[in-house]
Amino acid sequence: MGSTPQRSRRRRWSALLGAAALAVTAGGALATPAAAASVDVDYPTHCVPPPIAGIPPIDGTTTGKITVDNATPKVGDTVTVTYTVVKPAASNPTDLALPADIMTPTGKVTLGGAQTGSVTVAGPKKNDPVPGKGPFPSFSMTGTFTVTAPGAITLSPGDYNIHTSYILELDTPCTVTNPPAPVSETVTASADPPANTRAISLGSASGAPGAAVTVTGSDFTPGATVTLAGRSGAAQTADTATVTADAQGRFSGSLVVGDRTTTGVVAYEGSAWNAEKGAGPVAYVVVDDTPVPDGSQKLTTTVKAGTLSMSQAGDAVQLSAVDFGTGGASTGTLKTVTVKDFRGGPAGWSLTGKVSDFTGPGAKIPAGKLSWTPACATKAGSPSTCRAGSAGVVGSAGATLASAPDATLTGGEFTADAQLSLDVPAFTPPGTYTGVLTLTLT
């Protein structure tokens, strides 16, 4: 008889936990800042609590959101997906306060459109404490999929399950009542062209004005007509010739270079230069051996290549305060980063950032809670034009703040900024939390 009260207490705790697990699964997923294209969607869910809970199924409306780290991937790229249950359909139905870090979510994201199937997602065993009768915190679940087809791929919230580990190990599965749920996010995939392995070499690196240079090529389309052309910086000169690639895609031809401003030679298929069907430029110098007239002096100058560098307007950002019990977005503005690309070559650049966890008084805010909305500007006259990175999570894995593509001639001066938002959980202990955002320029 001595063990009967203990078993009775165990059943009572199990029932309370079953109810708690059900309330969580009708809603929550760790709030993750959304990419600009994603939207919240509502969909009915049918949640079945563990049998030991003694609670009937609950049918409610869940608000969910799907976000991705790359909304414009290429075929073959891997896309990271985050499934967030934004608004639970129920709160803690009991007076029992639940401790932190007892809930582990898993689920599915449904793919449609150009690519069908599902993505398995899972979240960490992490949650804020839940007061009795109080609202449940959210949980996030992440996973990846590989793009296999070009076109618009839709992503919709799917079924999910919450596993609770508190006294007993319990599962509460929730299914979408009328699948598929509404589309929350769409990615547009582009075809990934095969790698361009075309290559050319020159018989000499310099010559007098009007001299012919031998151009040898490989890996061009067999039988294709190939144009050989001089290049002056980013512009093509009037010096051109055509050759035909043999059955193995090789050729050898002669190009007469008469333009004294020529800095390189290219070869390409088609009617105009195309980086995907061309090769070069290979450096070539026209040696101007024009005699200097009597009473004259020949003046020569050299433009020296510089470096790729960055500087910051400061090294500290104070984000706005949030209230204990409410939490939410702690916002601020990244100190302006100036990028100077004075190399003068064909290479572009990429400026990325990653952040550490925000540590505070005996607690931390995960790095994945920080998101940004990047912006960049190009100084007038720059050969390159910078591109802002996508809005979304920064996290410990990192994200792109700004970049400039490869081109025939690159360079310039650029400024990059971002609006920052740290999603602070409602019951984060009061105090100051600090994280380090590291920027890398390559």
From TrEMBL:
Organism annotation: Streptomyces aurantiogriseus
InterPro entries referenced in this protein's UniProt entry, alphabetically: TAT_signal (IPR006311)
Domain of life: Bacteria
Signal peptide: 1-31
Protein's name in the database: Beta-xylosidase
PROSITE patterns per record: TAT (PS51318)
The keyword Signal appears for this protein: yes
Keywords: Signal
